[in-house]
Backbone:
């Protein structure tokens, strides 16, 4: 049986904490109100039972914890098998669509459509796969936010490593928050081992891929359900210039030196301050930092503690009195 991303999130955010507590207490009573029908921990409790991390001891009237190492393979192995199948299947589909895409681009119809082509939903993936397969020299990509799931990152790794092995150069930009994603770290390891360069930045930027500086693919809507392929040379050159300027300010993904990590923390702190001062809502601010609303709320809580304030209004006033704008030069020693 495989589990959904929502169940994995419930497991990470609630079930693990409940499991830790049960282990420390050597079990939990069946009558504990927290795991009752309407109890606050009922959902994570049910998940622990379903996974097999809790077993009922009828004689003792308690639920007892099981060794996670004996349960992990039952959950992880089906996902790994499914990922391998998806990779193989996506590769075959990409090859099939790649041949069609080449035929289309050589046809008079393709030229008649002009320098802008709109793509929707399921048409985006095959188009990108075909475009990357035809790359001759270079790929530039920008990937805001770390929320790419394992399957999409695995497919991207297969597509991009194939291009790199053909000798294509590749540079990719992420936000700093991507450094906390284990899936992204595995993807970065796979592509950097083959010569790609990956950097991160505190700023928010839009998703983009540029191939051979002749075609750029950018979002056509905020929900990312549509995209536009741009072949107009002047527009592509403009997008490349933006990428190059952003690249110069970014920090290498694989740089784990303490000074770099402190600088990154300071940059995220400064951007949180700017979001607060500009009055953005939590969802918007979290999106611009590339983190979850819960993580962003934690950043705000840290600032409240730092300035010894209880409300956001008080925090804003205190920062204003101190002349803080979030535009100050980053000083790692202050992070």
Residues:
């Amino acid at each position: 049986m495989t589990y959904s991303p929502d169940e994995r999130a419930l497991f990470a955010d609630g079930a693990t904490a409940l499991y830790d507590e049960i282990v420390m207490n050597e079990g939990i009573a069946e009558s504990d109100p927290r795991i009752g029908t309407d109890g606050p921990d009922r959902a994570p409790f049910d998940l622990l039972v379903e996974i097999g991390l809790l077993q009922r001891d009828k004689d003792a009237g308690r639920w007892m914890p099981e060794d996670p190492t004996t349960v992990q393979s039952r959950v992880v192995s089906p996902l790994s098998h499914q990922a391998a199948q998806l990779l193989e299947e996506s590769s075959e589909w990409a090859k099939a669509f790649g041949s069609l895409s080449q035929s289309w681009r050589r046809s008079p119809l393709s030229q008649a459509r002009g320098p802008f082509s709109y793509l929707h939903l399921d048409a985006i993936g095959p188009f990108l796969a075909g475009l990357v397969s035809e790359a001759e020299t270079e790929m530039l990509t920008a990937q805001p936010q770390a929320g790419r799931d394992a399957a999409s990152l695995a497919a991207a790794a297969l597509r991009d490593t194939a291009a790199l092995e053909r000798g294509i150069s590749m540079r990719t930009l992420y936000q700093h928050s991507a450094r906390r994603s284990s899936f992204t770290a595995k993807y970065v390891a796979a592509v950097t081992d083959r010569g790609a360069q990956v950097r991160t930045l505190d700023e928010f930027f839009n998703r983009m891929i540029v191939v051979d500086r002749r075609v750029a693919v950018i979002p056509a809507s905020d929900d990312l359900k549509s995209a536009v392929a741009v072949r107009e040379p002047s527009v592509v050159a403009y997008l490349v210039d933006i990428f190059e300027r952003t690249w110069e300010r970014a920090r290498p993904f694989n740089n784990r030196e303490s000074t770099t990590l402190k600088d990154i923390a300071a940059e995220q702190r400064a951007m949180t301050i700017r979001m607060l001062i500009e009055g953005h809502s939590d969802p918007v601010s979290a999106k611009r930092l590339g983190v979850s609303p819960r993580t962003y709320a934690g950043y705000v809580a840290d600032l409240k503690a730092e300035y010894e304030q209880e409300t956001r209004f008080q925090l804003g006033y205190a920062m204003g009195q101190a002349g803080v704008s979030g535009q100050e030069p980053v000083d790692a020693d202050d992070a």
The chain has a mean pLDDT of 83. The domain at 77-252 is CATH 3.30.870.10 (Endonuclease; Chain A). DSSP finds twelve helices and eleven strands in the chain.
